[in-house]
Amino acid sequence: MSVGNAFMPRPGRFGTLPVPLTSGRINTGTLAAGTQNHNIGAMAATCVVSRFTVVAETFPTAATSCTLQLIKMTGGTALALTAAVDVNAKTANVPITVSVTGTLTAAERTLLPGDSLRLALVTVGAVSVQPDDLVGVAELLVQD
Predict the structure, then answer these.
(1) pTM summary value
(2) Where are the beta strands (DSSP E) in the chain?
């Protein structure tokens, strides 16, 4: 919301600065059955993961299934921040908003300096249509 030239956060967001963390175009190469992990990035500030959106010019089509999941990495420890979301043969250029799992604690949703985000793309069965121009964006609420 803005009043004149002054920016004001929406109610409930006072003290936070929403920042998009964009994966850039994810290069899946020739996608085959199995799990492919793609690093999205990290922040130098303490942030809370608010939501995640993914879009593609062409979503993959697999014989059985193809899902995406947002993962928080703390060193070598992975924590799923979202449920696995079906992207198999979804409509091109239509963003899919992925909710952060509601049962996570505040600490689990928080990215500390040194943590990173990863996108896991899990395909079951032969891939008949390869993904193209796949991009993910995580909205982070900067706490400090």
Answers:
(1) 0.85
(2) 2-3, 6-7, 17-26, 34-41, 47-55, 61-62, 65-74, 77-80, 85-86, 96-99, 110-111, 115-124, 127-129, 134-142
